[in-house]
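Memo to structure team: turn this sequence into structure tokens by end of day. - J.P.
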Amino acid sequence: MKNLSPKLVWEIFDQITKVPRPSKKEEKIIAYLLDFAEKHSLECKRDDIGNVVIKKPATAGYEAVPTVVLQSHMDMVCEKNSNVEHNFETDPIVTKIVDGWVKAEGTTLGADCGIGMAAALAVLVDDTIEHGAIEALFTVDEETGLTGAFNLGESMISGKYLINLDSEDEGELFIGCAGGVDTIGRIKYSVETLPADYEYYRIAVSDLKGGHSGDDIDKGLGNSNKILAYFLYDVQRYGIRLGMFDGGNLRNAIPREAYAVVAVPKQNALLFETALATYISAVKSLYAITEPNLKISVSEATLQPVIDSVTQKKLLAALVGLPNGVLAMSQAMKGLVETSTNLASVKFVGNEIVITTSQRSSVERTKKDAKHAIEAVLELAGATVEHSDGYPGWNPNPDSQLLQWSVDSYKELFGVEPKVRAIHAGLECGLFLEKYPHLEMVSFGPTLRGVHSPDERLEIATVDKFWRLLLDVLKRVK
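Reply from structure team:
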């Protein structure tokens, strides 16, 4: 990567990929940022939650220009393929270049938002760039709770304009985003030991694409938890008993893998196997276009206790009944998902089954309605339910001067009009606006695909365009 252009941006991004930075465990990347500031003699401060701001004075002739905040988050989603050995707390990301894209070896790449960090840091150290005073804000724990943005320290930033560097579609300028809330259900269970006349099977759904539960929710991708649950619910008529269900990991990632261990009465084993073969054929046909690599495998499993039959029935009913995917499209902005929900993970923890879902909406009322719909299904299944604090959306300001500069810059640089739109994913901008209501904000970035999955990739050619746009907008603020 260090040989790619723009060289400084890629060199810094290469350094960032070598620093472990899981959400809520950002100590090493914080240390990297503090050391970076010291090495380049830049003013730096850190708040109590871990957010870091590095400042650079204005260049000559730009002293009177309002301060611009360049914002990115320092944590990354840590997802890997099940056959990959990787410790995200200690191991560097192993990168490769494939057909014009930078990817990682079986893990997430961390370009979300590592490439935004790299661009901001490059601005801080490149003395050839013309700009007013810069405040580079790096927040913690964006991916699992927006903790850094929620708890941003008093007077950490003073800028009038904020450029968020966390977008994933080159040629598009974002001026709004969805708000979100997580809903978690917990179902207690007891275990039973079955007599000897049962066969045990391990059924696994794998090789789905996964992806971002905001950006990718409307792409028709498979949800491993739903695919597995539909089958198990259907074959309860054969007297199956459930020993384990494990699927998905992160609330903001569409689950790619899930498995279950079931016990089947020996006299019904052939019926069960036939039903599974029929289901596999049907699901592969259903997802032939969007999930061509989908696998559903079955193997023998060892004897193990099963959950009580009452809980099994409630659990599978809940997993089938929970809404998943797009709930409503925006009436105000064509093609924009307004409201969605993601059945993110199902885990057996102690004597509880923990079901995690994530709801998003650009309309506060429908976000609340979606939350209540999930809550109602879980409560009908006997679950205790809790919600996260949630985070607000970012209401678009089409009259922003910063937006106009960005549009004009893109048109002059590349000869085409950029798309101006809102995004269904969550950005930290809504929280910044609550704390600093005077801010004008815009978000842009290079093209990323497969974000929040091991298929995450960064298109090389778009990084140069992203960099040129950023520099030109900074110059135009004068």
